[in-house]
Amino acid sequence: MFLEVKNIETYYDKIKILNGISFSLEEGRITAILGNNGAGKTTTLNSIMGLLDDQPEKGTILFQDKPIHRMDTHKIVSLGIAYVPEGREVFEELTVRENLMVGAYLRRDTKAVAGDLEHMFDYFPILRKRIKQLAGTLSGGEQQMLAIARALMSRPKLIIMDEPSLGLSPLLVREIFGIIEKINRDGITILLVEQNAQMTFRVAHTVYIMENGRFVMNGPAEELKDNADVKEFYLGVREIESLKGYQRYKRKRTWK
Amino acid sequence: MITQLLINSLVAGSIYALIALAMNLIYKASEIPNFAQGEMSMFSTYITFLLLTTFGYPFSIALTGTLLFAFLLGFIFEFLFIRRAKEPNLLGFIIITLGFQLVLFGLAGWKFGSDQRTFSLPFSETEILIRTESFVLTEHNLASIIIAIFVMAGLYILLNHTKLGLAMRASQQNVKAAKFNGIPTDRILGISFGISSVVGAIAGILVAPVATLDPTMMWDPLIKGFAAAVLGSLESLPGAVIGGLLLGLVENLFGYYVSLEFKSIVAFGIIMLVLFVRPSGLFQKHYIRKV
Ligand SMILES: Nc1ncnc2c1ncn2[C@@H]1O[C@H](COP(=O)(O)OP(=O)(O)OP(=O)(O)O)[C@@H](O)[C@H]1O
Ligand SMILES: [Mg+2]
């Protein structure tokens, strides 16, 4: 397996947030995690990236068969994993160009870095116009593009993205998902956390559904999107009204 | 007379600016006001003295040795003490720096004695370079100004035109984001402490010939440098430089026109004034730091 997460448990102080979750990524694919607010998606990603001190408390994470749990974040990154975090987290007081150069921090091939910079501006033409601008002055959509471009600058094997469509207009959301597919076609494996189920089912190959710190369902996107619960609770599709026209009782989730 | 005042202001201001820069380098990287800064400078200056006087090395070697020592002192201070503190608050950090200050002070008194020593540098404060009717300029005056300019230019280039500088600025702004971009932020913080210590050591070497070398030599300059940093904003390196120069000027004008005896309360007055009027200093950054 490309990335394999086995039974991880993550705590904030004494509160257990992740209840022993397991999942795996196939190389070259887009795997998505869907879940409501507070389900533990960001916590899962932060646990993988080694951003939480001394967490995960239990469990193992293997990247290309090498254990990476509790490793220093910069060492995890050096194995070829890049992160596009929730809320973008661009360096606000650095220029667009400098932000991209930070993305290439671990690289030694200066010439190729310069080439990749150009490549990013082809990917995201809007960034070329803003090259000398401070990232803090970019619009939300531009910052999201920058965060993705910054991640690409490390030439990763795997990109982990946390709600890249958050707070963007429908048009931009579609553009971002288009970019995600394009990156994937270029051979980069993607782990995508989202709340936008519609778009996610359109691009992802495999989908996991998370609630309260555990996975309640998973499977190929094609199959899962026809599941009745997924339809109602994530895709917002209602079942046919009852014959008498009465309001039906709220549907119970069958996985509980 | 006014020319002389300006020269004196510029010399004092350059030294205050260096100390303020040293403080700000650490403050920007970690939000820690490093109260051990002065003693770190003092200790490094003793190393210069040892290498020059006791071992009889030429100045160039003594200086290189000192700067190397100063870098390691800062780096090791961060590595041994600052990094060990798990989720400390500001008070905890302040106590760590005060503790380190006491350790260095005690060590210096024990190792080097507390008698005042003089030591001679290639630029002496008694050798007069230019004497006119209205002013005198000593070697030490000129050297202080030139060295300060070199250090400032060096820091500017380091921060804005090198990969290390970029990593330092990225880590200052957002540690978490720096980490997931592959920057070893702990090591970068240690290096920031080392660089700060080097800048402080240079200030110490410039102070020593005027103040004579003893373990308390940096007490007064440190307060001044701290006032300069507060005045210009602890968050801004150009602010530190301008704060230093302004303080040098105000202090010398005050000493000449108002009272020489009370010259040293100017720094304290400025700290209070800034805290009342504009606590973030004159050169506060536009962006609010993300916590
Ligand atoms: N730093 C923290 N300290 C304590 N509890 C936290 C912390 N961060 C998150 N939590 C809690 O952990 C749980 C999971 O949070 P997490 O951010 O992983 O959710 P999420 O699935 O990413 O939600 P969203 O879709 O809103 O981003 C929540 O109940 C949250 O309150
Ligand atoms: Mg989240």
What structural class is derived from the secondary structure elements of chain B? mainly alpha
Q: In CATH, what is the homologous superfamily of the domain at 1-79 and 191-256 in chain A?
A: P-loop containing nucleotide triphosphate hydrolases
- Radius of gyration of CA atoms of chain B, rounded to a whole number: 19 Å
Question: How confident overall, as mean pLDDT of chain A?
Answer: 88
Uncertain runs of chain A: none
Cα end-to-end separation of chain A = 29 Å
Gross morphology of chain B is globular
**Major interchain interface with per-chain residue totals:** A-B, 25 and 20 residues
Architecture overview:
The complex is a heterodimer of chains A (256) and B (291). In chain A, 42% of the residues are buried. The mean pLDDT of chain A is 88. Chain A has a domain at 1-79 and 191-256: Rossmann fold (3-Layer(aba) Sandwich), CATH 3.40.50. Chain A has helices spanning 41-48, 73-78, 96-103, 110-123, 125-129, 140-152, 170-185, 197-203, 221-224, 228-233; strands at 3-12, 15-25, 30-35, 58-63, 66-67, 81-84, 158-162, 189-194, 206-211, 214-220. In chain A, helix 3 runs parallel beside helix 6 (140-152). In chain A, strands 6-7-8-3-9-10 form a six-stranded mixed sheet, sandwiched between helices. In chain A, strands 2-1-4-5 form a four-stranded antiparallel sheet, covered by helices on one side. By secondary structure, chain A is of the alpha/beta class. With 291 residues, chain B is an all-alpha fold. Chain B has a single domain (2-277), classed as ABC transporter involved in vitamin B12 uptake, BtuC, CATH 1.10.3470. A two-stranded antiparallel sheet of chain B has the order 1-2. The longest helix of chain B has 29 residues, at 2-30. In chain B, 49% of the residues are buried. Residues 286-291 of chain B have low confidence and may be disordered. The A-B interface holds A 49, 51, 72-74, 77-78, 82-83, 85, 89-94, 98, 101-103, 105-106, 136, 150, 154 and B 163, 166-167, 169-170, 173-174, 176-185, 285, 287, 290. Adenosine-5'-triphosphate is lined by residues 12, 17, 35, 37-43, 86, 195 of chain A.
